[in-house]
Every structure is written in C-alpha cells, then in structure tokens.
Design goal:
mainly alpha, 237 residues, 2 strands, two-stranded antiparallel sheet
C-alpha cells in the first residue's frame, strides 16, 4: 500500500499529515481563545474593583503590608496554578487553576493601577495599548518566522533571578530601580512571549491549551506591569 497521497500543492505528503495539522490548528485556536478570555476576565475584575470602590482599601492594605509577603504569596499561588494547569487531567481543574491565577494577578495589580489612575490619568489605557501592540508584534514574528526560540529559556531564567534579587535589594536598602530596570524587564517579558509562543507552536501537548494560555497570560501581565511603570516614571519627569 502506498503510504503517500498527493497534497493540494502537488507534493507528496504522508497520510495523516493533514489531520495532525488540523489538530495543531485547533490547539492554537483554543489556546488563544482561552488567553483572550483570561485577559477579558482580568480587565473585568479590575473594572469591578474600581467601580465598586473596593480598589482603594485593597490598595491601601497591600501597600501597608510587607511586599515580600505579597510577592511570596503570589509566587506560591502562581507556581501551584501553573503546575495544576500543566499536570491536571481534569479540564475543570485546569480552568480553575487559570481562574485562580487571573484573580491573583488582578489583586496584585490593584495598588499599581490605583496609583496610576490617581496620579497619571490616561497612562493605564496607553500601557494597555502598547502591551497589546507588543504582544501582537512578537506573536507575529514567532508565527511568521517559525523560528525555534527555545535558546531564550536560559536567558529568561537567569534574568528573572537577577530581577528578583534587584527587587529584593531595593526593598531592603531603599534604592530606586528606575527607568532602565523597567525597560530591561519589558525586554525580558518580550523574550518570554517569543519563548512561550515558540513552545506553543512546536512542543506543547495539544491537550494542554489551558496551561499554554496561562503561560502566555503570565508573560503579557509581566509586560503590562513594566510598561505601566515605565510610563508612570516618564510622566513624573
């Protein structure tokens, strides 16, 4: 039996190649639909908190608490949510992990958004637009080139460790990280988006689209955080 059939382009292709392509396409559509819903949910939670007046007490409570504890709790919840989204067999458990992560991100963003909304009106929408444009551009590069960006994994890991040490040092010793740190972190978030997108195109298991969406959401949130900080710093000058 001939294991090949003519493709639409006239070039022989293995049986099942089209099915695998369709399956990967469905995985990509599900991943980006889930990411879109997660971003909408994040925006909806923030809007609800600010519209209801809950944002101010939450912001004051978090600003009055040790930021080490807040970051520590966030990292633990983030690790647990990511692990559950990547390993849980149940789709309910995977979506629950993503929902928990989105809610945690929304809460930790409240102090920064509260300060930006009060002292730099218009900056939030500008930061959102820049983040969306950056994400779209980097995603387009990854899809267009189909390049393997896995080599960025080591850079992202060590960059993240250095960033955490600098953030910890700034809290302990009271120095300001400044504009250049925000720019560097935006670059790190961009590298994470390229790395995540490359993995999603090449390596991610097709039943783990929730985990893929969570990973992308985390990178987009990181970029938004530091774009917002950068614009606030420039606005004060």
């Amino acid at each position: 039996m001939n294991p090949y059939q003519p493709s639409r382009s006239g070039v022989d292709a293995p049986w099942g190649a089209g099915a695998r392509s369709d399956s990967r396409d469905r995985f990509l559509v599900r991943t980006y639909n889930t990411l879109f819903v997660a971003i909408l949910a994040f925006a909806g939670i923030e809007f609800s908190l600010f519209f209801s007046g809950l944002a101010e007490p939450i912001a004051r409570a978090l600003l009055g608490t040790s930021w080490f504890l807040v970051l520590g709790a966030f990292m633990v919840v983030g690790w647990l949510a990511t692990r559950a989204a990547h390993t849980a067999e149940s789709k309910v458990a995977q979506y629950s992990a993503l929902a928990a992560y989105v809610v945690m991100e929304a809460i930790i963003f409240v102090p920064l958004l509260f300060i930006a909304n009060r002292y730099a009106p218009g900056v939030i929408s500008s930061a959102g637009a820049i983040t969306i444009a950056g994400f779209a551009g980097l995603t387009g590069i990854a899809f267009w080139t189909r390049k393997d960006f896995s080599f960025l994994g080591g850079l992202i890991k060590w960059g993240g460790i250095v960033a955490l040490l600098l953030i910890g040092g700034s809290m302990i010793f009271g120095f300001q990280l400044g504009v250049f740190f925000s720019v560097a972190m935006i670059g790190l978030a961009g590298a994470a988006i390229l790395y995540d997108t490359s993995k999603i195109l090449r390596d991610f298991p097709e039943d783990r689209y929730v985990g893929a969406a969570l990973q992308l959401f985390a990178s987009v949130a990181l970029m938004f955080w530091y774009v917002l900080q950068l614009l606030m710093s420039l606005n004060r000058r």
